[in-house]
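Backbone-to-sequence.
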């Protein structure tokens, strides 16, 4: 028994000294792509989400991770997300590419941390866009809906990045209209169409059908009294002015020294 305890203690000390364990994350949850430390999902939701993230991660050889933790222990969301990614072995390939969504309900924080190829895929504008899409779900308490939306958008962003033109400033996906907005738009369009048709019909009440075209021509109205040349058109060659769009990803170093991009906020 003492020998086993000695081996365990020796192993922990060795891990800490080598930098493998520098944060108190549970080995029980390490390496899973869904780590629900705040217990925000039921069993079926967690299993479904994990399956979806595994599928995306394996198709693109790129880790997509969702982590929930009620309290961050005094760390900033950025530091916690970066460290959780780095010290739990996430990331594929030589650059350890991946992206992690952290949700902490204690102070209503969310943060997205990307590493390796993820810095290219998830630009500052892209992360802001994803935040705008998931925060309404978080605000309504629909945590599973928020994480599902994040998974769908990661799939979409990774697919787009494979074309060599990642989503960024000026090229983000169009935001879908809500059902209320669609209904209001259709109603306004119908009302405007009826008004226009009513005006056109009212102007036609004094018109009578003529069988002969001569009835529309006033006698003597077609005499030509003079002629002249008039300049009407100019041929102009135009060139679009280059747009100065500041895009891309801003990066920082985590406590492990790895380079990350990221962004977040509150809901």
């Amino acid at each position: 028994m003492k020998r086993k305890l000695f081996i365990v203690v020796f192993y922990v000390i060795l891990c800490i000294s080598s930098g493998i364990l520098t944060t108190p994350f549970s080995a029980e949850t390490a390496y899973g792509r869904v780590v629900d430390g705040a217990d925000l999902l039921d069993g079926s939701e967690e299993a479904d989400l994990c399956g979806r993230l595994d599928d995306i991660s394996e198709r693109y050889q790129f880790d997509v991770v969702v982590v929930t933790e009620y309290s961050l222990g005094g760390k900033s969301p950025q530091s916690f997300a970066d460290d959780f990614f780095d010290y739990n072995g996430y990331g594929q390939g030589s650059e350890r590419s991946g992206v992690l969504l952290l949700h902490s309900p204690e102070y209503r924080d969310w943060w997205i941390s990307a590493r390796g190829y993820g810095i290219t895929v998830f630009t500052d504008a892209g992360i802001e866009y994803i935040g705008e899409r998931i925060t309404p779900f978080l605000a309504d308490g629909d945590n599973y809906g928020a994480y599902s939306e994040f998974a769908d958008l990661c799939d979409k962003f990774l697919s787009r990045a494979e074309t060599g033109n990642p989503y960024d400033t000026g090229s983000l996906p169009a935001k879908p209209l809500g059902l209320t907005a669609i209904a209001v738009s259709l109603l306004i369009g119908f009302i405007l169409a009826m008004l226009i048709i009513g005006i056109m019909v009212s102007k036609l009440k004094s018109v009578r059908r003529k069988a002969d075209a001569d009835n529309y021509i006033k006698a003597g109205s077609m005499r030509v009294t003079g002629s002249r040349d008039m300049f009407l058109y100019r041929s102009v060659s135009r060139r679009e002015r280059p747009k100065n769009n500041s895009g891309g990803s801003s990066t920082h170093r985590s406590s492990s020294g790895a380079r990350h991009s990221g962004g977040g906020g509150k809901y």
